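Please predict the structure of the following assembly.
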Amino acid sequence: MSGTSKGARSREQRQQRIVDHVLNQGSASASELTELVGVSLMTVHRDLDELVRRGLLRKFHGGVSAQPSTVFEGSSEYRMGAQRSQKEAIARTALTLVEPGGSILLDDSTSALAVARLLADIGPLTVATNYLPAIEVLKQLPEVHLICLGGNYSATHDSFLGLPCIEAVGALSVDMAFLSTSAMNATMTYHQEHELVQVKRAMLAAAETNVLLMDSSKMPRKALHRMAPLSDYDRLVIDDGADEELVAAARDVIPTMIAPIES
Amino acid sequence: MSGTSKGARSREQRQQRIVDHVLNQGSASASELTELVGVSLMTVHRDLDELVRRGLLRKFHGGVSAQPSTVFEGSSEYRMGAQRSQKEAIARTALTLVEPGGSILLDDSTSALAVARLLADIGPLTVATNYLPAIEVLKQLPEVHLICLGGNYSATHDSFLGLPCIEAVGALSVDMAFLSTSAMNATMTYHQEHELVQVKRAMLAAAETNVLLMDSSKMPRKALHRMAPLSDYDRLVIDDGADEELVAAARDVIPTMIAPIES
DNA sequence: CTGTATGCTGTTAATTTAACAACAACTTCG
DNA sequence: CGAAGTTGTTGTTAAATTAACAGCATACAG
């Protein structure tokens, strides 16, 4: 490609040092970081912008902090970033399952959003979702018949949930649902929040074919609520950074597609 | 309370002038606006922040613009335009009917959007709507419990319609609905599109009190579909540019509030 | 009438951003 | 193999934005 081998490496190391320092101190000013890593103020700002974009840090006027300092801003933006290329690869692979003229369901996950972003040139398609960022993307596409699944707005997820949403899903019958969960193992999928579990289960029931989108970072973990057994899904799409053993185990249960991460 | 009578008035006028100028020019720089309104740069920035918060302007580094700088503008935002100050006046008057703790319904009209923009400091409130621009505004307000009425997305209206929406409305029972129609006379309201009529009728049925928002520009006209008799509404809010005769006739049917247009 | 509180405004200093120039690493092509 | 071109990273400079504090006018209570 281009001049990235040495440059990118030192850049990464530098950003890692910044993250470490901020995580230790809780927060730091830009000029403070200038001295720490020995580059210009401008470069520090550029690093910080990227780290914010990746969801690792928070920026406020005067510096950066480790945690969501105030409240604001859906943590959904937050989730993207780090595994962005994985999610994009997964979405590209999952996209091969979509056929023009069909109907699909997208849940409120960044993985599903990545799918939405790739639906431009498929052909006529009906897409239903409760996820506002996905709606913003899909409303631009003239060939997509968009259905919004309404409900109670959740600022933390930037989506619509609750009984109204479940009922709206229940009224549908679609070809395919693309779902993601916060954790899984060889037999079960899990999620942190009960409210989301209810909606996702309704989606599972409403679709002919259920596709589970998983980026490897969340693979060998559990979470509070059991959501659905792996056997409830018809297809697993996962990136190639996943634990071999787990993938092998999952393969015994459902057809599994491995998404290659581009360099 | 405090020093707001004269100060606030000039402040509002100033912001109005800023909005007018930006809408005319398409965009403007902060320093340019400084000369226009004759206050310090800092105050201009404070005004712009507030106008952005109210959803009237977009800010980018170096100035502000009327539309989403990157994309085209939704045709719905556009409709505002000429009758913008009327609609804002109407909304401000209608707002006096809203009580904290209550629940309200907003239809997919720019008049209802104007109401949404003023809901910031009312107190806890439940608001349901099928209108995407209103959702974008309301999702910012921490005190508002927002319910999205889902349905089939209509690009021409930027809202959700059809059977799913009607069913979602039917599941609700709210204190007050704020509606607008494309035409009215002394006994009847009308609308151009049947699909909208159905949704609005459902809203009428779901609310305890129905408030009709009318800017005078559309008063003495008819439109294709009869929507509902004026007697189905409980309150009419109209700006003071309306035809005297018609207002008098309407007064015989329902309580009517006249919204003063500021200079 | 006086004191206090509240909100709006201006000034200053610090921070952040955009825009451009310089440079290194890699690629391509002769 | 080397020259030219491309791409990505960094630094410099100037402009823009923000926070913080101080000053002033108005409203209200006593």
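The interface with chain B takes residues 71, 130, 132, 135, 138-140, 142, 145-153, 155, 158, 160, 164-165, 167-168, 171 of chain A (CB under 8 Å). The longest strand of chain A covers residues 207-214.
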